[in-house]
Queue: 4 jobs
Job 1
Amino acid sequence: MLEFFRKIIFKYEYQLYISIFENIFDVTLIDTKDYFEFTPGILRTIVEPKHARSVQQLHSHYLSRAKIVVGEVKNISKNFTRSYLGVDDHLSDMLVVPASLVNETSFYRIKEITKHLETNLYVTSKITGCKYGIGKLDDGYELRISGNSNSTLQ
């Protein structure tokens, strides 16, 4: 079912997802800077300014295939979030967090409801305030996630 889903776009918070997905999809990373910053190490840079280089890593150093866009997201197209995609069983639970962070409803068709998916839906809804629903189809299920975010993609 992955052949229906070719492109995925992430905001900067999702480096873990990006490194996983970049070998499966055409991935675009959107960030306001061209590097990842390990936040817990920033306090040390106040007393040791040279330490800044060790807490910063260029996106291009850990992403070999992803397109990197340095800029800011303004809004998201309805076509991006309202596509009825067929999603692989192992991917459906990973899409919960990104889908919960947009102000649109995302729709995905999946073959089965896994425990990982149920757990991610429940925990993500508690953290982000997103709403979700699962409907039975003849050949599987439809998952709807209504995001809850003030940020939008373009």
Job 2
Amino acid sequence: MILLVAVSAAGLYWRRTRPLLTAGLSGAAILASIWAPNDIVLAPAIFAVYSVTVYRSGRAGWRVAIALEAAAVLAAVLGGGIPRPSGGFHPFNPAQNAGSPDYVSLLGFAVQFGVILALALLIGVNVGNRRRYLTALIDRARQLAVERDQQGQIAAAAERARIAREMHDIVSHSLTVMIALSEGSAVAAEAAAPDAADAMRKAAATGRAAMVDMRRMLGLLGGEAAAQTAPQPGFGELPELIDKFRSLGVPATYQLTGSQSVDPAMQLATYRLVQEALTNTLRYSHGPTRVLVRIELGDGALIASVTDNGLPGFPTEPAGTGRGLLGLRERVAALGGTLTAGPQEDGRGWRVEAALPLDDGEKVNRS
């Protein structure tokens, strides 16, 4: 008897980590009571049912309770532990029951032990559900924290990409213009031409404009309010941009057809496309005689294109990283449009074209 109690009690050590093992040892102790007449070890079975229900599931608890109930009844019958009514009924110590076998008392024993197991099961279901609910809340909180961190990383990466795109659009264009002006002024100075001073003044003006653009772009880092109040170039600034490239020797012409409304974001994307295309023409195209900047508004779409008829030249600076066209593709895609860039069909010159869907926005400025 002492050995059976020790085995059952030892199983309680694993009731939280391995509750099924606890239930198995309790059931084994009950069945072993067959060889220990009038002694059935039942108390550990109650804790086993509770533990399985809490740390596994209610369904597993029901199965264990039924199995332990059957084992207890079997041990009572085969081990001679059938209750005797003459000495009273003692379900947890059948040895105290004396008299002839009474199956009614056995039924009472089974019912009482079953009720106790059912109570343990119900308490376990309540505690287990509460425990699983709290665990689910903790897991959900952790998952939300991970998702929040991931969203923050994605937002930071998108912001870095946007800043890199803006940096390229502003710095690359302005520095290309300044380099061209500086080289031209150096040649003019060697020839003692009066245009040298004018070229240097234009270079300084370009540098100042780049500084203003840079400060505006960096102001985006201060928050959405700064970004919303910062002036953004659009169609109204295109003639000035094209005139600047004309002064550098780029034979650019500008055509704007249609009068549909275009929102500021689409105007900014168009401005950046023209800026990038003209900058690449200045850097890479050799001897172009015609550069056409054309914007068509109609049929619910905006078509912006820049074409030149120059030959591939030898740039005076290292080749770019391709970030400019990549940034343009991202801008256009964000507005639901498409961008194509490549050589002309006749093999002479280059063409960059963007197609954007038109939405209601501000009136096009033709100035």
Job 3
Amino acid sequence: MNDKDELIASFRQQLREALRKCSAQEQEIALLNHEIELLKQKSNLK
């Protein structure tokens, strides 16, 4: 591999990692939003 190919491979790996983190954060946000809705419903029942 030449320097250009190595740089491209490194950027691709960085992009994959960034996308993985973004996906995990989106899932966490969805879970937290769901928990908020459950708490709202629970507080309305009291």
Job 4
Amino acid sequence: VTAAAPADGYTITAINTSVLRLPFMTRTSYDPRRDFTYIIGISSLTSGLVVRADAPWKSFAEFLNDARANPGAISIGGPSGGTNPQIVMRQIAKQKGIEWTQIPYRSVAESSNALLGGHIAAVADAAGWAPYVNSGQFRLLVIFGSARTKSWPDVPSLNEFGIEVAATSDYGLAGPKGLEPQVVRTLHDAFKEGMHQPAFVSLLAALEQEPIYRDTNDYAAYVRNQIEAQRRIVDELGLKSD
């Protein structure tokens, strides 16, 4: 809708990594390289790998070692369809020479229930599992991304294990192509100010998102890099459907 809207500043959309990846997987009505004006980067959705608190793995290193020693034996629940958590686990397996079994679930609530019931060994997904981690029922082994989070500062990120992935869920805002620079500045400044409002900060915390501000130029550069990264991921993992 946004890609085809008038370039008047009244129609904008949230952009995440999946939006940038999808055109390389299947036919879409938009091309992220030419159909949007990128305005501002705002946040990153926290995702990670969790196991039950009584699981034998006390760390991500132990989890990797066990998976390496027992190819295909560890079952990991999560979303399917070329989503970020699924791709992260495939990238880890490829980089580390590991095999595990990924089980698709329709929601993180469904996969979390399966983990609670002992039907799977772990869940790799966005932080819908947070209440179980905070209550002590799940153990968070690793954060998908390049940095630790404020919510769980003691939990390492993938980068600390020498694992680099390009499927984190960073969010930003974009409008149709051809937005006037003054319109872009006005929108950028308004949303930047809004990022400091207590209601927005509280909302991000409730959604387990970390604020990540990128100005217009930085966000456009980030998107360009991500588009190329997503193209490589689709090629490397064979995700193209047509």
